[in-house]
Design goal:
With 272 residues, the protein is an alpha/beta fold. The protein is 36% helix and 14% strand. The N terminus and C terminus are likely disordered.
């Protein structure tokens, strides 16, 4: 989509830096406006339309009171890593009929029943076993689910996601699951202050998508690229992101270090 850019243009924010803490509707509007300004600036640098980028506010660790404030400020689809945390919030805020939830962390199959019950979107599909389990649970619920295929573009063995060379065959198998509406890809960049290395993760996903688009099976959509978080979303947009998963830049810096949530293969609950 976009050509690679000199990494002196956007600032790769320190992942452990501080973002303004939001405690009122006005605070959330301010933070959301700042994120939107970053989106507009990144799009301007590469000649993209900002309307082609969706912000997914990530509300993990955020309590119900502050989520309701963010809802009042306009947030309607929220991203959560941990299925049980998301399900609890979904139940607690059932009165907000148009508030929807996107599960963006690795899914254990024993929690697929919950995802099938409440989620509007699942961004971390990376195995046929998960696809089969979700399909069965969704059919029982009489629902369909938008999904993104997670790809490991950083080359780290600790990360979840398919290896790029595995993705083509994986896509060919997905039409068998009629309740899964495949929309595109998701990736987690290298957790690094080196903007050039981070950018390469996004470039790999865009190039993979562009390569596979021509041979994707009927009904498999590859329009969406979910990549970029609070510290690097402008770089992701420059490289073609259509969804940016932004938590701290909207809600404020977390007290829990990012490493607590970063996905590590073999652990129970990874990062967004």
């Amino acid at each position: 989509m976009a050509a690679s850019h000199d990494d002196s243009s956007p600032t790769l924010r320190d992942q452990h830096g501080r973002w303004p803490w939001a405690e009122s509707v006005e605070d959330f509007r301010r933070n959301l406006a700042a994120v939107q300004a970053g989106i507009v600036a990144a799009c301007r640098r590469v000649g993209r339309d900002p309307a082609g980028v969706r912000v997914l506010p990530v509300s993990k660790t955020v309590d119900e009171e502050r989520i309701r404030l963010s809802y009042a400020a306009g947030c309607r689809l929220l991203g959560e890593n941990k299925v049980q945390e998301a399900y609890r919030k979904w139940n607690a805020m059932a009165d907000l009929a148009d508030l929807r939830w996107s599960v963006i962390g690795h899914l254990q199959t024993n929690k697929a029943k919950l995802v099938a019950r409440f989620a509007a979107e699942f961004q971390a599909l990376d195995s046929l076993h998960v696809a089969e389990t979700l399909e069965r649970r969704l059919q029982a619920e009489g629902r369909a689910l938008d999904v993104l295929v997670q790809v490991n573009t950083s080359g780290e063995s600790s990360k979840y996601g398919l290896q790029p060379k595995e993705v083509a065959a994986f896509l060919q198998a997905l039409p068998a699951f009629s309740a899964l509406r495949v929309r595109g890809f998701m990736t987690l960049a290298l957790l690094s202050a080196d903007a050039a290395q981070v950018r390469q993760c996004f470039v790999r996903l865009r190039e993979l998508r562009d390569r596979l688009r021509q041979e994707a099976p009927d009904g498999i959509g590859l329009d969406e690229l979910s990549m970029g978080m609070s510290g690097d979303y402008e770089i992701a947009i420059e490289e073609g992101a259509t969804i940016v998963r932004v938590g701290q830049a909207i809600y404020g810096a977390r007290s829990t270090p990012d490493a607590h949530y970063w996905p590590t293969a073999g652990t129970e609950e990874p990062h967004s």
